[in-house]
Amino acid sequence: MPILKKPTITIFCGSKSGKRSIYRSKSKEIAKILSKNSYPIIYGGGKTGLMGSLSKAIKNEKGYITGVIPNFLNIPKLAQIELSKLYNVKNLSDRKKLMIRKSDVFIILPGGYGTLDELFEVLTIKQLGLSNKPIIIYNIQGFWEPLKKLFLFLKEEGFIDNKDLKEFVWADNIDEILKFLKKI
């Protein structure tokens, strides 16, 4: 019987922790659960904020984690060096390209401009038919509710279609994420 390889998951999340401690605790929780289930993880390579919480939790579980960091951010106070693998790339654009290419699934946690940039990149390439990789937006304690409203507004105004709203899934908890991952 062939050995089935677990899909590689890229997790996009903030380099800051946000105001609510639940963002950090849920980042750690998903990291632990995915590691225990042998999912290889790719992330932005940072050691601060949610990225840091995620990478430390995966390391503590002896999970496999790959960081992808631009050269200008690869400094001791920002870069996590205790990883299974670390890629140094020229810039943020190259980081996104590499993370997207090496990933089978994307999970979006809370974050700021960088996380939104990464989310919109994977949504756009999927909308254009350049990728069919699943996208899961983890709506920790309603963090992404304003984005849901924006997407509905974009649809109402004729800039996206119903089909575009089906290019990703919303998950309100880790069980929903695991259930979705088991289908792929």
Plain-language structure description:
The chain has 184 residues and is α/β, with parallel strands linked by helices. The protein has one domain: Rossmann fold (3-Layer(aba) Sandwich), CATH 3.40.50.450. 41% of the residues lie in helices and 16% in strands. The chain contains six helices and seven strands. It has helices at residues 21-36, 49-60, 92-102, 113-127, 145-156, 174-183; strands at 9-12, 41-43, 65-70, 85-89, 105-108, 135-138, 169-171. The chain has a seven-stranded parallel β-sheet, with helices on both faces. Helix 4 links the parallel strand 5 and strand 6. Helix 1 runs parallel beside helix 2. It is globular, with a radius of gyration of 16 Å. The relative contact order is 0.16. The model has no long low-confidence stretch (mean pLDDT 96).
The helix content is 40-55%
Q: Which second-level CATH architecture applies?
A: 3-Layer(aba) Sandwich
CATH topology: Rossmann fold
Largest beta-sheet characterization: 7 strands, parallel
Over all CA atoms, what is the radius of gyration?
A: 16 Å
Number of domains: 1
Low-confidence stretches: none
State the secondary-structure class: alpha/beta
Amino- and carboxy-terminal Cα gap: 19 Å
How many separate helices?
A: 6
Broad CATH class: Alpha Beta
Mean pLDDT: 96
What is the total tally of β strands? 7
Strand content: 15-25%
Overall, the morphology is globular
Biggest sheet strand line-up: 4-3-2-1-5-6-7
